[in-house]
Amino acid sequence: MVIKLSSSEKEYSFKVTSIAPFIDYCVSNKYDFIEKTEQVRTLYKKADNTMLRLTVKKVGDKVYKELDFKQDKLSNDPFIERKESKAIPYEDDEAVNSIIDFLDYKKAIELIRNRYVYSKEDVKFEIDEYLSPEEALVIAIEGDFNKITNIYNELKDKYKDYFINE
Question: Which domain range does residue 136 map to?
Fold first, then answer.
C-alpha cells in the first residue's frame, strides 16, 4: 500500500493589469466556474523553507477555515513547482495556534484577496484580486504541465499587453 503524503503543485503565476480578459478566456473556453471567495490568508514561515498557511474563506454567508503546508520556494520564473499538503479544515483557533507555536512557525504576512476559481479537465485557474497588504492582480494556472504550458503560452501571446513584467 502506497500512501501519498503530499503532492506537487505545478503552476504558472503572473501579475496582470486587469483580470477581465482572463475571466473572459475561462468563460469562452467553457471552464466551469467553481467559486468566488473572499479570503484572508496568514502565512507562517520557518528556516526549513516551509510555510504553514491559515486560510479563512467566505463564500456567501458561510465561512470556512483551513490549515495547510507548502514549500516556501520563490522564483522569478512564472512557472514554479512546489510540494504542498492537503488542506485540513478546522474550527478550533486555540488548538491551531498551539500547533503553530509547537512547530515554531513565525507569522510572516497576512494577505486579503478575492479569488475566482475556474476549472476544466486537468487545469485550474485561480484569479486573484489582492487588496492587502498591497493591491495586485494575479493569475495562477495549475494542473498538467503540458496543458498549462500551452495555455500560458497562448495567454502570453493573446494578452501580452496585460502581463506585468517584473
Answer: 7-162
